[in-house]
């Protein structure tokens, strides 16, 4: 497995963990009522949008040639993914601090 494939596997594993967390949070939201339920639904929507961005990035990486990866896209992908991870961490933190 080359560096790009290993990185892609790590990204997919992280996206899968986020999806599992989102499903768990949806279950919690289903038990909430009133304003709390509305806030949970808004935050879950934000998480789902971020997750969709992550999936898009993974697909983009899957379609990137090894040559493009070695030619400089590796750094761009890592920077974009790091930003997504931070966004997800903040969104998850907001949910758990509710």
Q: Which structural category do the helix and sheet elements fall into?
A: mainly alpha
Radius of gyration: 16 Å
Q: Sheet with the most strands?
A: none
Give the low-confidence spans.
none
Mean pLDDT: 87
Count the beta strands. 0
Describe this structure as you would to a colleague:
Helices cover 91% and strands 0% of the residues. The protein has one domain (3-96). It has helices at residues 3-31, 34-62, 66-96. It contains three helices and no strands. It is an all-alpha fold.
Summary of the model, kept short:
The chain is mainly α and 98 residues long. The chain has helices at 3-31, 34-62, 66-96. It is elongated, with a radius of gyration of 16 Å.
Jot down its keywords.
98 residues; mainly alpha; 3 helices; elongated
Write the layout of secondary structure elements.
Elements: H1 3-31, H2 34-62, H3 66-96
